[in-house]
Automatic annotation (TrEMBL), chain A:
Listed name of the protein: Phosphoribosylformylglycinamidine synthase subunit PurS
Gene3D superfamilies attached to this UniProt entry: Phosphoribosylformylglycinamidine synthase subunit PurS
Name of the gene encoding the protein in the UniProt record: purS
Function: Part of the phosphoribosylformylglycinamidine synthase complex involved in the purines biosynthetic pathway. Catalyzes the ATP-dependent conversion of formylglycinamide ribonucleotide (FGAR) and glutamine to yield formylglycinamidine ribonucleotide (FGAM) and glutamate. The FGAM synthase complex is composed of three subunits. PurQ produces an ammonia molecule by converting glutamine to glutamate. PurL transfers the ammonia molecule to FGAR to form FGAM in an ATP-dependent manner.
Key words, A-Z: ATP-binding, Cytoplasm, Ligase, Nucleotide-binding, Purine biosynthesis
Origin: domain of life: Bacteria
Pathway note: Purine metabolism; IMP biosynthesis via de novo pathway; 5-amino-1-(5-phospho-D-ribosyl)imidazole from N(2)-formyl-N(1)-(5-phospho-D-ribosyl)glycinamide: step 1/2
EC number: 6.3.5.3
GO molecular function terms listed in the Swiss-Prot or TrEMBL record: ATP binding; phosphoribosylformylglycinamidine synthase activity
Subcellular location: Cytoplasm
The family this protein is said to belong to: Belongs to the PurS family.
Organism encoding this protein: Glutamicibacter halophytocola
UniProtKB/TrEMBL annotation, chain B:
Subcellular location: Cytoplasm
Swiss-Prot/TrEMBL catalytic activity: N(2)-formyl-N(1)-(5-phospho-beta-D-ribosyl)glycinamide + L-glutamine + ATP + H2O = 2-formamido-N(1)-(5-O-phospho-beta-D-ribosyl)acetamidine + L-glutamate + ADP + phosphate + H(+); L-glutamine + H2O = L-glutamate + NH4(+)
Subunit and partners: Part of the FGAM synthase complex composed of 1 PurL, 1 PurQ and 2 PurS subunits.
Catalytic residue positions: C107, H216, E218
InterPro entries in alphabetical order: Class_I_gatase-like, PRibForGlyAmidine_synth_PurQ
Primary gene name: purQ
Name assigned to this protein: Phosphoribosylformylglycinamidine synthase subunit PurQ
Organism: Glutamicibacter nicotianae (Arthrobacter nicotianae)
Alphabetized UniProt keyword annotations: ATP-binding, Cytoplasm, Glutamine amidotransferase, Hydrolase, Ligase, Nucleotide-binding, Purine biosynthesis
Alphabetical list of Pfam families matching this protein: GATase_5
UniProt pathway annotation: Purine metabolism; IMP biosynthesis via de novo pathway; 5-amino-1-(5-phospho-D-ribosyl)imidazole from N(2)-formyl-N(1)-(5-phospho-D-ribosyl)glycinamide: step 1/2
SMART domains in the record: GATase_5
Record's function text: Part of the phosphoribosylformylglycinamidine synthase complex involved in the purines biosynthetic pathway. Catalyzes the ATP-dependent conversion of formylglycinamide ribonucleotide (FGAR) and glutamine to yield formylglycinamidine ribonucleotide (FGAM) and glutamate. The FGAM synthase complex is composed of three subunits. PurQ produces an ammonia molecule by converting glutamine to glutamate. PurL transfers the ammonia molecule to FGAR to form FGAM in an ATP-dependent manner.
Length: 83, 250
């Protein structure tokens, strides 16, 4: 069953408190190469059958209306993944 | 109402002008503070009307309170799913209509109002990442709204703050607009408890009929139970809207 993957990230100018906390934990575990962490969300929308342009357009609209809040977040990726 | 603060509850009959006002309190799956909000409405002298999120009948209410809690478990984003409830569509229409239905969003209710774009900005996790529950000092920045006309401008009040996602954010342009248009309704005084931009605790829409804030006025309406066991600073939210409804101060 093909899936449409939607990735949502906080806008760059919005402070990400969770990412900051993760960034603080990394060096404690010996991972010292990472300057910063930002945490986002990945959604997988399963489709029964072929992903048509219309279905993809619906996914893009859902990404902008429900899956993300344009005030604080950007939809950074919408792609079809075939299994 | 008596001008003097009663030592205990003021049980005098509310003035006849405000009796008969009906104020809706919306319940979503996961709402926690609807009972307290309804109690606050009654303490102010109005009738509380329960509104269910899935219904579409506003039941001719004169104003609406969207109470706090964790509607839909805060899944996706706080308020993100509730915002699409049928009742919310009705409330948004009525708030934006010529009738300008007064709407107060408290905590999760504030988050629902920003997700609905009835109010600008949004809330993200507290900057310190912890849930916080404390008696919070606020300054009333704008006493010209439907829900704040009973306060003095600049008055400091103490009500309960309790949340996880309370950090108010908006871009600089929106923040400048809010300041210029006097739409910052409440600011945190002293320590900023969640990293909110410009210490904003609550905002209003342009018309002043829609107000949202993170702290909880409905928990500070009765002597003996509010902050410090005596605070009743929250009651004026609910009496303000009654004054507004009878055409008093805006």
């Amino acid at each position: 069953m093909p899936r449409i993957v939607v990735d949502v990230m906080l806008k760059p100018e919005i402070l990400d408190p969770q990412g900051k906390a993760i960034a603080g934990a990394l060096p404690r575990l010996g991972f010292t190469s990472f300057e910063a962490v930002r945490q986002g969300k990945r959604f997988e929308l399963s489709v029964d059958g072929e992903v048509t342009e219309e279905i993809l357009a619906q996914a893009r609209e859902a990404a902008e209306t429900l899956l993300s809040n344009p005030v604080i977040e950007d939809v950074v990726n919408v792609e079809v993944v075939e299994d | 109402m008596s001008a003097e603060l009663p030592l205990i509850g003021d049980y005098s009959t509310p003035s006849t002008e405000i009796s008969g006002a009906r104020i809706g309190v919306v319940t979503f799956p996961g709402t926690l503070d609807d009972r307290d909000a309804a109690r606050a409405v009654r303490a102010a002298g109005a009738e509380a009307v329960s509104l269910w999120h899935a219904d579409t009948d506003l039941q001719d209410v004169d104003a609406v309170v969207i109470p706090g809690g964790f509607s839909y478990g805060d899944y996706l984003r706080a308020g993100a799913i509730s915002r699409f409830a049928p009742m919310m569509a009705k409330i948004a229409d009525a708030a934006n209509s010529d009738a300008k239905l007064p709407v107060l969003g408290i905590c999760n209710g504030f988050q629902i109002l920003t997700e609905s774009h009835l109010l600008p900005g949004s809330m993200i996790k507290n900057d310190h990442l912890k849930f916080i529950c404390r008696d919070q000092l606020l300054r009333v920045e704008n006493n010209q709204t439907a829900w704040t006309n009973g306060f003095e401008a600049g008055q400091e009040i103490t009500i309960v703050l309790k949340n996880q996602d309370g950090q108010y954010v908006a871009d600089e342009k929106v923040l400048d607009e809010l300041e210029a248009e006097n739409r910052i309704a409440f600011s945190y005084v002293g320590w900023n408890p969640n990293g909110s931009r410009r210490s904003i605790a609550g905002v209003s829409n342009k018309a002043g009929n829609v107000v949202g804030l993170m702290p909880h006025p409905e928990h500070a309406i009765e002597a003996g139970f509010g902050p410090d066991h005596r605070g009743t600073d929250g009651l004026a939210f609910f009496t303000s809207v009654l004054t507004h409804l009878v055409g008093g101060k805006k």
